[in-house]
């Protein structure tokens, strides 16, 4: 930055845009899903399975699997009807990430920094690639596919994803790939969508997608976050269209009343064709990172409000589970999905009797 030389000109904007379009159009991630499946996306390979990380991190590394286990054990969701995504390939990631960024991830030192794992716990590189980056790339594949399904079905839930601290150029805060940016770029090209609303209700500010869509008028960002914690990204805050800053210790009643007010404002500000809902559960009371005091019931009501908002506007909604890695998070997310089904905001049963 800051150099004013006029040496060899970079590929033109048009050429770069054309390359991006072609990558998106030739991607395998948007495969056709049988009608017998429900729009819940998950793969057992989402789970980060290696010994020790959970001791160093306030982190339930099998959160994603436990969500599905609760749902299938309780008869809410038929295991055979869950959709398994494909892993995002290098070409898929290159749609937003520069080659150099992906190259840096080949070093476990760089990955450890993004994951904020102490260097003493650094893992052999092959393990980082297999046990950490592969699961994340599967979740990215899920977030991208979710928009296609939402357009077809009205809603889709990726049981993982929501890496909202990662931008095209920079990872951070446990987020290695910019799945939200990718999901939206694919939707622009493949779904013929030109207005997307991000509703980011994770406890942290979503500085990754904010940086990526800073000057993109097609994306409206509503972000409600604890302004006193990570990432304190003041530049990215300028790109939030509707900013709701909370203080540590905010309680359920105040939070939900604020959300009602803000959804009403959002409704009048922007007319989206797709809602991307980043539904982090680190707002839960007791979460060491989020530092808010929202009850489990409060999280369930929050999700219901956002789904109702999308339904009333008749706009497809993608939900990503994002942050929140306490042991209790999986339980709350499963309860919330069950509640959405009970309230007819999502349909986990239809076509069960179809022979399709
Ligand atoms: Zn968070």
UniProtKB/TrEMBL annotation:
Keyword Ion transport belongs to the record: no
Enzymatic class: hydrolase
Cofactor(s) listed in the protein's UniProt record: Zn(2+)
Entry GO MF terms: histone deacetylase activity, hydrolytic mechanism
Gene Ontology, cellular component aspect: histone deacetylase complex
Key words of the record: Chromatin regulator, Hydrolase, Nucleus, Repressor, Transcription, Transcription regulation
EC number: 3.5.1.98
Subcellular location: Nucleus
Keyword Transcription regulation recorded: yes
Catalytic activity: N(6)-acetyl-L-lysyl-[histone] + H2O = L-lysyl-[histone] + acetate
Alphabetical GO biological process terms: epigenetic regulation of gene expression
Record-annotated Histone deacetylase domain positions: 57-338
SUPFAM superfamilies on file: Arginase/deacetylase
Family annotation (Pfam families): Hist_deacetyl
Function: Responsible for the deacetylation of lysine residues on the N-terminal part of the core histones (H2A, H2B, H3 and H4). Histone deacetylation gives a tag for epigenetic repression and plays an important role in transcriptional regulation, cell cycle progression and developmental events. Histone deacetylases act via the formation of large multiprotein complexes.
Name this protein carries in UniProt: histone deacetylase
């Amino acid at each position: 930055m800051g150099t004013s030389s006029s040496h060899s000109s970079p590929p033109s904007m048009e050429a770069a845009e054309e390359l991006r379009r072609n990558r998106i159009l030739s991607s395998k991630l948007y495969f056709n899903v049988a009608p017998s499946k429900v729009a819940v996306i998950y793969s057992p390979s989402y789970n980060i399975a290696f010994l020790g990380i959970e001791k160093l991190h306030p982190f339930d590394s099998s959160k994603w699997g436990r969500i599905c286990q609760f749902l299938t054990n309780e008869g809410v969701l038929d295991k055979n009807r869950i959709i398994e995504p494909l892993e995002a390939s290098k070409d898929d990631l290159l749609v937003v990430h520069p080659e150099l960024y992906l190259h840096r991830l080949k070093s476990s030192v760089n990955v450890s920094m993004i994951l904020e794992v102490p260097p003493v716990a650094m893992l052999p590189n092959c393990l980082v690639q297999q046990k950490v980056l592969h699961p994340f790339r599967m979740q990215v594949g899920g977030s991208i596919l979710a928009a296609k399904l939402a357009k077809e079905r009205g809603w889709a839930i990726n049981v993982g994803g929501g890496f909202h601290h990662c931008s095209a150029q920079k990872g951070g805060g446990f987020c290695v790939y910019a799945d939200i940016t990718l999901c939206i770029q694919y939707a622009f090209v493949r779904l013929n969508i030109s207005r997307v609303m991000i509703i980011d209700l994770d406890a942290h500010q979503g500085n990754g997608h904010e940086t990526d869509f800073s000057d993109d008028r097609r994306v409206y960002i509503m972000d409600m976050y604890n302004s006193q914690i990570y990432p304190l990204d003041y530049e990215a805050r300028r790109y939030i269209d509707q900013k709701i800053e909370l203080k540590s210790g905010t309680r359920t009643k105040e939070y939900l009343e604020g959300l009602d007010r803000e959804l009403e404002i959002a409704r009048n500000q922007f007319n989206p064709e797709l809602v991307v809902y980043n539904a982090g559960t680190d707002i839960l009371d007791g979460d060491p990172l989020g530092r808010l005091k929202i009850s489990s019931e409060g999280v369930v009501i929050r999700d219901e409000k956002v789904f109702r908002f999308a339904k009333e506007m008749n706009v497809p909604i993608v939900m990503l589970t994002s942050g929140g890695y306490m042991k209790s998070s999986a339980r709350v997310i499963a309860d919330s999905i069950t509640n959405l089904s009970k309230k007819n905001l999502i349909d986990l049963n239809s076509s069960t009797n179809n022979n399709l």
